[in-house]
Amino acid sequence: MINNITVIIVSYKSKKTILNCIKSLEQFNKILVLDNSNDKELQKKIKKKFSKVKFYLSKKNSGYGVGYNFLLKKVQTPYALLMTPDTSLKKGTLDKFLNSLKDFSDNYSLMGPYEQNKKFVKENKTIINKADLILGFSMLINLKNINKNYFFDKNIFLYLEDIDLCKRLIKNGKKIYVNKLFIVNHLGAKSTNLSKDDFDKIRNWHWMWSQYYFFKKYNGNFLAILKFLPKLIIILCKYYILHLFQNENGNRYKFRANGLFSSIIGKKSYLRP
């Protein structure tokens, strides 16, 4: 089974976490890494330390979804294991996880770790259970049951691309599972070493942009405006009040308002770190 899986990792200024991530995956023979920060020093370091890794550099930061779409097209095996740089497989658990798949039906599209996705589980009866969705920090992708040419939505730079993917799969009758023997350590929001100010700016802008885009995609522009226009007004009021009192938290609402307004008027996701 392990020879039928290619690990894929997209990084952006992730040198603090990605080495530990790859080290936890050394049992795999095929590992693909795309670095969106064009870090040639990181490339040299990883190639020297991990001979199994095929490393790609990107001069343009196209985001999480587009990066993984690129790597998926490079995969030649029936399965891909998506990992983010701030994750690691728990030591000593891989064999048990892979063994649990031997007698399991191969009709699933995605499988994720149980612990972080248990709130999405429908019935918790066995080791492997159906789920409504799984989070995108780690997932086993069955490429026999999924179109890798239309995986993550290329318009989303950050946030909700995993939810969007699961929603489309379920709508098309595909199956998503979680596995209690698939154990992943996830640091959470540690996949990049951006400064706090830069991280907060990117996070707040894209969170609002993606929320509106996602809602509009499935409910239409009219309902999206009805839902989010009051939110925009509230965000702007908070910004002006905090700005008036020279509170530094005002910047958070400035970027939220900017991201939401950009999405409402149909601008593409443009803000980049």
Explain this structure.
There is one protein chain. This protein has two domains: about 1-185, Alpha-Beta Complex (Spore Coat Polysaccharide Biosynthesis Protein SpsA, Chain A); about 195-265. Helix content is about 40%, strand content about 15%. It contains nine helices and ten strands. The chain has helices spanning about 20-25, 40-50, 65-70, 95-100, 115, 160-170, 195-220, 220-245, 250-265, and strands spanning about 5-10, 30-35, 55, 80-85, 85-90, 110-115, 130, 140, 175-180, 185. It has an eight-stranded mixed β-sheet, sandwiched between helices. Strands 5-10 form a two-stranded antiparallel ribbon. α2 (about 40-50) links the parallel β2 and β3. The longest helix has 24 residues, at about 195-220. It is globular and about 60 Å long. It starts with a strand and ends in a 9-residue tail after the last helix.
